[in-house]
Design brief:
- The protein contains six helices and six strands; from the N terminus they run E-H-E-E-H-E-H-H-E-H-E-H.
- The protein is α/β, with parallel strands linked by helices and about 180 residues long.
- Strands 2-3-1-4-5-6 form a six-stranded mixed sheet, sandwiched between helices.
- It is globular.
- It starts with 9 loop residues before the first strand and ends with a helix.
- The structure holds guanosine-5'-diphosphate and magnesium ion.
- Guanosine-5'-diphosphate binds next to helix 1.
Length: about 180
């Protein structure tokens, strides 16, 4: 296996948060394994996947954590956030409520995580443009106000998924190195 003997320079823990069914697990599957499944099962138990990449000639292992069907408010435990240097705050752009809930997910995150954590807001399911319920400008405005990176993605079509993860990882690298 390719990276068996690879020297890892950095391990970055990134957590995925947001309402149930917004596509967190599929974003992770797409990034880590380039897979997508329509019949995505609810995640059981805390899970993470890793992907090793090279940033600025350094080997960075991204350890990305996915919620264990704990997406109810206050159900995600502090162990989940512990040590995280990045967070992806995911909503479904066809579900206004999932965007409106970003405020409390952010509050949860800021209550538990390191204050220097790099946060990216993700509007997922951009392939369903005709069903859009969250204008890009609303999300941009929120991201700007809260000092978050922002990107719209489609795990299904693999649009911007790699870019989103690379952006947050590069920013973390920039801060840490
Ligand atoms: P999670 O609960 O946030 O982990 O959401 P999942 O990753 O399990 O996805 C929930 C549902 O949305 C599944 O039926 C996925 O197939 C679907 N889904 C996830 N990402 C996308 C996407 O980018 N586009 C579309 N059309 N469906 C998606
Ligand atoms: Mg899931």
């Amino acid at each position: 296996y390719g990276d068996y003997n690879q020297k890892i320079d950095y391990v970055f823990k990134i957590v995925l948060i947001g309402d149930s069914a917004v596509g967190k697990s599929q974003l992770l599957a797409r990034f880590a394994r380039n897979e997508f499944s329509v019949e995505s099962k609810a995640t059981i138990g805390v899970e993470f996947q890793t992907k090793t990449l090279v940033i600025d000639h350094k080997t960075v292992k991204a350890q990305i954590w996915d919620t264990a069907g704990q997406e109810r408010y206050r159900a995600v435990t502090s162990a989940y956030y512990r040590g995280a240097v990045g967070a992806m705050l995911v909503y479904d752009m066809t579900k206004r409520q999932s965007f409106d809930h970003m405020t409390r997910w952010l509050e949860e995150l800021r209550g538990h995580a390191d204050k220097n954590i790099v946060i990216m807001l993700i509007g997922n399911k951009s392939d369903l443009g005709s069903l859009r319920a969250v204008p890009t400008e609303d999300a941009e405005e929120f991201a700007q106000r809260e000092n978050l990176f922002f990107m719209e993605t489609s795990a299904l079509e693999a649009t911007n998924v790699e870019t989103a993860f690379l952006t947050i990882l590069t920013e973390i690298y920039r801060i840490i190195s």
